[in-house]
Amino acid sequence: MAATPLIAADNVTFRYRPGNLALDGATLAIPAGSRVALVGPNGAGKSTLFLHINAILRPVAGQLSYKGQPYSYGRGFLAALRQKVGLVFQDPDTQLFAGNVLDDVIFGPMNMGLTAEEARRRAEAALESVGMLEHRTAPVHFLSQGQKKRVAIAGVLAMEPEALVMDEPTAGLDYPGLTSLRETLAMLHAAGKTLLVATHDIDWAWNWADLVYVLAAGRMVAAGSPADILARADHAALGFARPILADVAAALGDRSILPAGVVPRSVGELAALLAGRQNGQK
Ligand SMILES: Nc1ncnc2c1ncn2[C@@H]1O[C@H](COP(=O)(O)OP(=O)(O)OP(=O)(O)O)[C@@H](O)[C@H]1O
């Protein structure tokens, strides 16, 4: 029997207004400790699904559950859920509200009833892990979008959640910001956290995720390992462009150039496979 997922959405349907079906029976299951990428075109419903996972929105039909327990939406349930499942919004301005960086990040742990000392320890550790500790006294409105994004992530990390749900965390980050985010995600995964990320960065998602869900028009149209989804021929029907790597592999003629069934998951892996083949021919 499959293990109970940490978070599950079962046939979740939601309308912002009559006639607008933002989610149309969306279903997903997030195994504990996994790295899950949610991809899909603009307007597919990714952010809406995340707002359901954090119980900010409530479905008109269908159900969400945490460790097999259906969401109950009472005050106690909401407080516990939001401590265990941290949501990083797409737009950091939605999330940040305090005057300076440390005050913003310390708010969550203080709200959990921790001592001021423990809350500060957690907030500083979280800022350190996203490379923003040196900015702790900076006014939030002085920060760049990428820096705000990192502070928003720190605000969630400081709550020490079991799962982080991040809506397009790589958008707007420069190279050091991306590197730092990748390191943070690797550190969180190594620490056993469950990670669910919505992204348009398909190459990154393919390299990073254990499991990929594809959402289109409010419905989950595909789910599987990156290799499973790469191997599907109907990427256009899934609502996103065929990943570049798959095109490269196809253009190279995967059967003649790459071992049968091998689908490279990164440019580096493709280069290594090709280099290995060239060496083998000498
Ligand atoms: N606050 C809102 N009020 C009304 N409609 C909304 C609202 N937020 C989203 N929608 C609509 O719900 C649908 C799903 O939007 P959502 O933002 O969840 O998609 P998304 O997959 O996150 O898109 P993107 O990749 O552009 O961030 C869209 O049709 C969108 O126009």
UniProtKB/TrEMBL annotation:
<keyword id="KW-0547">Nucleotide-binding</keyword>
<comment type="similarity">
    <text>Belongs to the ABC transporter superfamily.</text>
</comment>
<keyword id="KW-0067">ATP-binding</keyword>
<dbReference type="InterPro" id="IPR027417">
    <property type="entry name" value="P-loop_NTPase"/>
</dbReference>
<dbReference type="InterPro" id="IPR003439">
    <property type="entry name" value="ABC_transporter-like_ATP-bd"/>
</dbReference>
<keyword id="KW-1278">Translocase</keyword>
<keyword id="KW-0472">Membrane</keyword>
<dbReference type="GO" id="GO:0005524">
    <property type="term" value="F:ATP binding"/>
</dbReference>
<comment type="function">
    <text>Part of an ABC transporter complex. Responsible for energy coupling to the transport system.</text>
</comment>
<keyword id="KW-1003">Cell membrane</keyword>
<comment type="function">
    <text>Probably part of an ABC transporter complex. Responsible for energy coupling to the transport system.</text>
</comment>
<protein>
    <recommendedName>
        <fullName>ABC transporter ATP-binding protein</fullName>
    </recommendedName>
</protein>
<dbReference type="InterPro" id="IPR017871">
    <property type="entry name" value="ABC_transporter-like_CS"/>
</dbReference>
<dbReference type="InterPro" id="IPR015856">
    <property type="entry name" value="ABC_transpr_CbiO/EcfA_su"/>
</dbReference>
<feature type="domain" description="ABC transporter">
    <location>
        <begin position="7"/>
        <end position="242"/>
    </location>
</feature>
<dbReference type="InterPro" id="IPR050095">
    <property type="entry name" value="ECF_ABC_transporter_ATP-bd"/>
</dbReference>
<keyword id="KW-0813">Transport</keyword>
<dbReference type="InterPro" id="IPR005876">
    <property type="entry name" value="Co_trans_ATP-bd"/>
</dbReference>
<dbReference type="Pfam" id="PF00005">
    <property type="entry name" value="ABC_tran"/>
</dbReference>
<dbReference type="InterPro" id="IPR003593">
    <property type="entry name" value="AAA+_ATPase"/>
</dbReference>
